[in-house]
Amino acid sequence: MSPLKVGVLLFSLMTLETSTPRPKFLVTTPTLLRYFSEKGIDVNSVSCGFGFTLFNGSHHKLKRAIYGCGINSDGQLGHQTDHLHGPISEGVQVDLVPEPRVLQIPQTSTMSPRLMSCGRAHSLVVYQDVELNRPILFSLGNNTFGQCAREIIEGEVFTSESAQVTKVAVPDDLTSIRQVECGQDHSLVLTDDGRVFSAGLGTDGQTGLGVTKCVDRLTQVRGCIEGFRIRHISSRGDTVLALTECGRLFAWGNNEYGQIWPVTDEVQVLEPVELPIYEYVGANISAFPEGFTIGKIKRVAAAGSICGVLDEHGHVLVWGFGCLGLGPQVLQTPAPALIPPALFTPALPSSDNRLVDLVPGLHHFIVQSKNGLLWSWGAPRGGLACLGLGRVSNKGVDKAVKNAQTYPVPLSLPAEAVSVACGVDHTVVLAKSFA
């Protein structure tokens, strides 16, 4: 893959282009974000938050840096001099960065950005110090609940003008980082050796620490995941899914809609619980298509009130409440249900073009096939723009599903998708030219 052929496409409730006289509030089809190609910046990865986006990019002069754009109400993009502040013509009060700008993070020549994640109003960024051979974690934005993993200061006001970047004090034994994941108001750090650390809001148990109070220091999540090597975590809202190296599934946090289905008498699950998905499928095989066999789970996706998994064959199973992808008649399922594989044609299970990634937004999902095809579904609160289907709502349908795409629909992309990031009302795709 030639880096010169890689581009960034986005579709969203709101995007900003400084070449136009005023902000463009809707982009309903995948649209090339020209800033990076025009500036000669190669984008390596993307993360989407609640109205803002981070890009890990490299330039022959700046080398590698983190770029950000979008809402900066709480300083989640750090201090930026080029920003819009105040009311705009539509009467909306904004505090935002209109096009990608470098995040002003203190770094040395031996540091290079590796990982990042965006929450509701905070961000996490991981740099690798090649001289010290260890990661350095920075946090930005709102810390009301300790989600930036620094001391909670009562009455602290968070604005773009008072933005600060914090070098997070990590535990001594946290010497490597595989993934960072920001939920709405909590943060998760996954180490290379499979341990999970958390901080932030805990009212729904989303920190997994056995308490509902806020925690402002990264603390290891223990309980029944101890002894397992966690390889992937997901949390867009207040529910957390964790996948082990051997394919076992654990969860904690919000359970109001049956996201943690083995627990039926608690709406907040304060510590990790195993979800015995293989046993469930085996015991209820009659509820699945004839010949169905679940493979090893490869990806997990925790949205606001819906959870999903993707297995090695390319099957997608979902559960919870909302726009599940099972059609307009199924808005809740108390245990995993299979999205009909035919909906993802030609990316059929076990084929060379099978599904390989499942990405959650807060209220929508995107799946990606091995050769870069995409499908989307969901019921985003602001309309269907972030699904990339060319429309904001469905016409001539019941009001209940007007702003819902209840089953997966293929996206028409002018390029081959490499990776996808979903926010609350926008989606960004890193793509390359067709071979």
From TrEMBL:
State the signal peptide span.
1-19
| One of the record's GO molecular function terms | guanyl-nucleotide exchange factor activity
Q: Which GO terms describe its cellular component?
A: mitochondrial inner membrane
- SUPFAM superfamilies in the record, alphabetically? RCC1/BLIP-II
Repeat (RCC) residue spans along the chain? 64-129, 135-193, 247-313, 372-433
Is Signal among this UniProt entry's keywords? Answer: yes
Q: Which Pfam families match?
A: RCC1, RCC1_2
Q: Which InterPro entries match?
A: Mitochondrial_GEF_domain, RCC1/BLIP-II, Reg_chr_condens
The protein's UniProt keywords, in alphabetical order, are: Signal
* One of the protein's GO biological processes: positive regulation of mitochondrial translation
Identify this protein by name.
RCC1-like G exchanging factor-like protein
Q: Which organism is it from?
A: Mesocestoides corti (Flatworm)
